[in-house]
DNA sequence: CATGAGGAACTTA
DNA sequence: TAAGTTCCTCATG
């Protein structure tokens, strides 16, 4: 697990203070760290609201406030001139855009901006920023933290990802595995292609992949035993199979795109 | 000892 | 009802 990835949307100041805190208590569980990170995210959102004099709910933003938010995000995360690409959109317009449409506006930073907006949009939590008690009404935000924005998609975006609008749908295991495989920079240590054209991949760290899947689905008890059972369900559905010469932890997508 | 196949009952969206 | 999840037995190297 690479905790640093989770800090992608934090400012440097909070990053450093969190890092110091974590360093002092390395026995802290993953869960506590998540709570801390999310607590910091909430504070950042809160700060931005006061600074920009905008509401925390993007749906209520005027086009001017959208520009404010974009400029702020641009500034905070060093995204060159992205605000120019979203001229004249109200908050409602912005929220109605899919991730694919964000990417159309900005190939380089579209998914990053989308993720940032989603943090705001899914912010209907019961929060108490002062005591750092964070409850989620929407695990989507948590998912986004697991999939860092700072990286660009490597390789093509798959048809199903774009067309099915899966971000509003419950994610499928095979899609999740593809998401990991699409980000070798982040996840190749735990899952990677052996032959991308043939759709053959290997799970290098079964426990880690299972843990990620468990987080994504909010199933803390997930393990490779259960994950692999789910993969095996794909055999008769024609989604994933074992390659010709079966090898441990190696599977193959039956319809690689 | 971790992986692999698959039955069966159960849960969750 | 689909898509897993949980638990299980038995097989393999």
From TrEMBL:
Residues 171-254 form the ETS domain. Residues 40-124 form the PNT domain. SMART domains: ETS, SAM_PNT. One of its GO terms (molecular function) is DNA-binding transcription factor activity, RNA polymerase II-specific. Keywords: DNA-binding, Nucleus, Signal. One of its GO terms (cellular component) is nucleus. One of its GO terms (biological process) is cell differentiation. It is found in: Nucleus. The keyword ATP-binding does not apply. Residues 1-27 form the signal peptide. It comes from the Eukaryota. The keyword RNA-binding does not apply. Belongs to the ETS family. This is SAM pointed domain containing ETS transcription factor. The lineage of its organism: Eukaryota, Metazoa, Chordata, Craniata, Vertebrata.
